[in-house]
Each structure stands twice: as C-alpha cells, then as structure tokens.
Amino acid sequence: MKTPRSLVSRGNCAAVFCLLILGNSLSADDVSKVTLRVPVSQDGGINSHKLLAALGTMSGVSPDLRGAPNETIRFNARQKKLVTFAMQLVGMDVKFEPTELVIVFDRTKLPAKDSATRLIQSTFGVDEVDWSHYGLMDIPGKLADIDSALVVLVHGFEATSSTMQSMAEMMNRRGYQACFFEYPNDAPIEKSGELLVRELKQIQKQNADLRVVLVAHSMGGLVCRHAMEVAGRDEIRNVTDLVMLGTPHQGADLVHLYPMLFLVTDVIPNISQLKRVGLDGYSQAARDLEPGSTFLTQLNASRRDKRVRYHVAVGTVAPFPRGKFQPMLEKVDNWMAGRGNSPSQRQSVIATLEKAAALEDGAGDGVVAASSARLGGVENTREFRLNHNQLISAEMSSAEQRQILQWLFESIRSKD
C-alpha cells in the first residue's frame, strides 16, 4: 500500500526536514538557493548514511543514523537522467561530478500543484493512485452484526493506521468496535474525503442503525471534515461525532518545504522504479495544507452538519521552552553571520522560522500551531499538555494522557 522507504527512517525524515528548514547551506550568491553536496565513491555509489551525514554536516547537526538502513545507491546513465528529471519536478537542479552529487534547490521554483503528477504521467505513462488499496481496514466482523458504536480511526499526514493501533485497542477495551480508514498520504485531501464518503455510505447501506464515530489525527481531521461538510454533506446520516486531535484547520506554516522531504524520502529511494514514487500521490496533500490554500479556504467556508458533534483537542507541548524560541532565532542568526551569510540570507531564514509557532512550548504541539488546531464554533475544544504524537498515544503513563482519554470517551458518549 505505502511505498517502502528504503533510504531513511521516519525519525530521520523529521531530522532532515528540520535541517533543511534551517537553510544553513544557503549559497553565498543567491538567497533563494540551497546547495547540497553528496559524496560519490570511486565506483559511482552513494552511501545512504553519507547522504544523511552530508545534510547534517552542512547544518552543523549530526542526524541519528542508528535507525537508517546503510545502503549504497548506484546510477547508470539512464538512471542519472531520471534523477535529474525527478529532482526538477520538485524544483531542484542536479549535477553529477566524479566525486560528488551536487543538488541545488531554488525556493522560487517550487512546482505548481499537481504539475509533478502531470509530468510523470505524461512522460512515463504512470497511472494515478490505485484507490483500491485504500479505504476501511480491519472491520470487526460483519457490519450488520455490530451492535455497539463503530469507531473509525483516521491517521494523519505521512502516517499509516499503525499510528492509531494503541487507540484502537483502547476503544475495543471500552466496548466500542474500532477499525481504520487508510488513505494515500500525498494525494489531494478532497479525494481522500470522497473515498471516506463512499465507505461511510457502504456502512450506512449495510447497517442503517449503526452509530459511527470518527476519530482523526492531524490531517485526517481535514479528510473527515471534507467528507462530512463537502463531499457527503447531508448524505451521511449515521455519523454522530467527529473528534479531531491536532488537526491543522488553518494549515501548517512550514509545509511549503515539503518538496525537499518528498525528494529525500520518495524520489531518490525509488529512482530505479520511478513509477512507484507516486503510488500515494505527488505532494498534493502538502499543497492543500499550505495556509490560505484553495482547499482550506473552501473547507473553512463550508456548512457543517448540525447532526454531528464536533470535538477538538489542541496540543501545547513543543520542543522549545516558552521564551526560548526568540533567543534560539538570535543564535541561528549569529551562527549564520559567522558562516558568512549575508543579511538578506539571514533575514530569509529567520522569517521562515518565525512562522513556526508550533515549535514553541505553549503555542503548539511541535507540528501544528495551537491557533491552527482550534476550529471556530466548536464548543468542546480543550487544550492538553501533550505533543503531536502523544495526542494519539493512548498510553496511561501521565496524568495528561489519562485526561485526554477521559475527555475523548466522555465526548463520544451516546446522546441517548
């Protein structure tokens, strides 16, 4: 279902993403460009650990390589052309040198939404996402035989239902019947919402009296909202509750840098089989998550189904202690000045980081800003001293985690 990622672990993806956000490798002559230099061995291979180490060296940070496979990637002439083409799709230029691979990313040349899809499809005849691989998973028995509420768990961006497994176990212990809704991480959010509508209609058809509760994490909340407010508005009659945990209703400020992560995690590992790269979409979801995107603008202007109770949880634990974020920015600025970056270069990087409110404790959960996680008009909104992943951990290791579970079960309690 999900394209295997053979180059970097999910934890290292996050590390690489943060390194690229800092932009510490800005070239001296163009503030819009970031240059990566990856060593190439004498036999023409690139070591996966060296790739990550190169990213770390350029930013002054050493990535944790313990969880990353130690592999060698080699390119023949044809594959080099594919590498060049693939990188151009995400706004990058590449040059193969005898001893290094030079990658230049130009911030001003990000591809327009869906352009990557059109280019790859037209050039290689790649099919669109195979939606038959997605939908409701692990339904407990026959829908017609379920006599308790069915809880549909919806994962977030760049995740799978495995992130919701502990939540499912907790639901089952409480007497609910839990299942998962899988959708392609990188496809347009509206398409995933339309798939959810089709699946909910099937539930409704097989068991019209079955009560359904949607519990969604992060971007999954937007998938559910599109299903209930746009694609299936007034058609889905058995959904009584929608719980959204750390959902970016107003978007995520740093998601515009996602093409770089897409390159590192999807394009390079699968370059010899480029047709596999887009099995779950071509970064369209990231475009939808940009603040002010057409998708978010239309969704936030939609009408809600009054039959559905909305519940919102906001996380407020982030990496930088309150009051320490601004001093950190000053340190970054001073550090870049010491490396010879120009004032305009430093200003560009600091301006980008200043948008990352989600990184400051109390202002976000480390991924989503608290202001974006709130949704106007939702009375049952509550803040928790938890980070983005702890919102769905369903563990009982802290008082705050016990509180969010108590709040969750109280929220979805039957109206009757």
Gist of the model:
This protein has helices spanning 10-22, 48-59, 77-89, 115-124, 165-173, 189-206, 220-231, 258-267, 284-288, 294-300, 325-338, 343-354, 370-373, 399-411; strands at 33-39, 45-47, 72-74, 92-96, 100-106, 135-137, 150-154, 177-182, 212-217, 239-245, 309-315, 380-384.
Strand/helix succession: HEEHEHEEHEEHEHEHEHHHEHHHEH
Shape by Cα distribution = globular
Going across the major beta sheet, what is the strand order?
Answer: 6-8-7-9-10-11-12
Mean pLDDT: 75
Number of strands: 12
Helix content: 25-40%
Query: Termini distance?
Result: 39 Å
Overall structural class, as computed from helix and strand content, comes to: alpha/beta
What does this structure look like?
With 416 residues, this protein is α/β, with parallel strands linked by helices. It has 14 helices and twelve strands. It has helices spanning 10-22, 48-59, 77-89, 115-124, 165-173, 189-206, 220-231, 258-267, 284-288, 294-300, 325-338, 343-354, 370-373, 399-411, and strands at 33-39, 45-47, 72-74, 92-96, 100-106, 135-137, 150-154, 177-182, 212-217, 239-245, 309-315, 380-384. The strands form three sheets. Strands 6-8-7-9-10-11-12 form a seven-stranded mixed β-sheet, with helices on both faces. The protein has a three-stranded antiparallel β-sheet with strand order 1-5-4. The chain has a two-stranded antiparallel sheet with strand order 2-3. Helix 6 crosses helix 7 (220-231) and helix 11 (325-338) packs antiparallel against helix 12. The longest helix has 18 residues, at 189-206. The radius of gyration is 22 Å and the shape is globular.
